[in-house]
Write a structure and sequence with these properties.
With about 90 residues, the protein is an alpha+beta fold. It contains four helices and four strands, in the order αβαβαββα. The longest helix is centred in the C-terminal third of the chain and has 19 residues.
């Protein structure tokens, strides 16, 4: 991660980077991602961590089986996904 971001890439693909490492690494990585975003670089952030997606992202795309099922403002897409998952969980009970 540090090597990939040291060169100020035009597009940064971040795949589950905050799910690894210790707390110190996650804090440093989060700060670096925010720094890149402030410089108007394109960041594609791939994660299952909805809290970090909501805090980092302005736009979200939900995929299901490789297909786009939702695309829009991050907080709206995440809220709809959480509601859908809650409904599925309740139906399974």
């Amino acid at each position: 991660f540090s090597v990939a971001t040291a060169v100020s890439p035009d597009v940064l693909l971040v795949d589950e980077v905050l799910s690894t490492g210790d707390a110190s690494f996650r804090d440093k990585a989060r700060a670096r991602i925010l720094s890149l975003m402030k410089k108007a670089r394109a960041v594609v952030y791939v994660t299952h961590d909805l809290d970090s997606a909501a805090s980092f992202c302005t736009r979200a795309i939900e995929l299901d089986g490789g297909r786009i099922v939702a695309d829009g403002p991050a907080k709206s897409v995440i809220a709809a996904y959480q509601a859908k998952m809650a409904k599925r969980a309740n139906a399974a009970r």
